[in-house]
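Per reviewer request, we include the raw input and output of the structure prediction for the construct analysed in the revised manuscript.
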Amino acid sequence: MNFETFFEDLINLKPETKPLWGIMTPQHMVEHLTLAVKSSNGKFSVDKCLNPPEKYPILKKILLGPKPLPKNFINPVLGEGLQPLIFNSLDSAKDELKLQIKEFFNYFKNNPNNEPINATFGPLNFNEWLVFHKKHFTHHFTQFGLM
């Protein structure tokens, strides 16, 4: 996965950009992606998956398959509604996202066998997280007409 392409698309995201579906603002979306990346780089620990371990094989098959993430999915961890914003601007949020992506690669460089827990799909290795992030970024960038 090449995050540089996403960074190029991210330049076009402005505070006034409207989503094609859903209730997120541009900054909410960027902060949401940042939290997902932090859950894969050791900066935010997910205690357990919402699904039982016996479902992990089928969930990973779904994740690694060709289907995109569904629109209007309500993440049970986050619940309905918008989370409070953390950063004072969209640009600050974008900078943090870029930093956390760098931390993601550093984390797996130093911990190649770790499998941080994804709240939906369970423990994921580096390559599985790459697939998740690509689908997740594509989903939200499409939501805002960036792709």
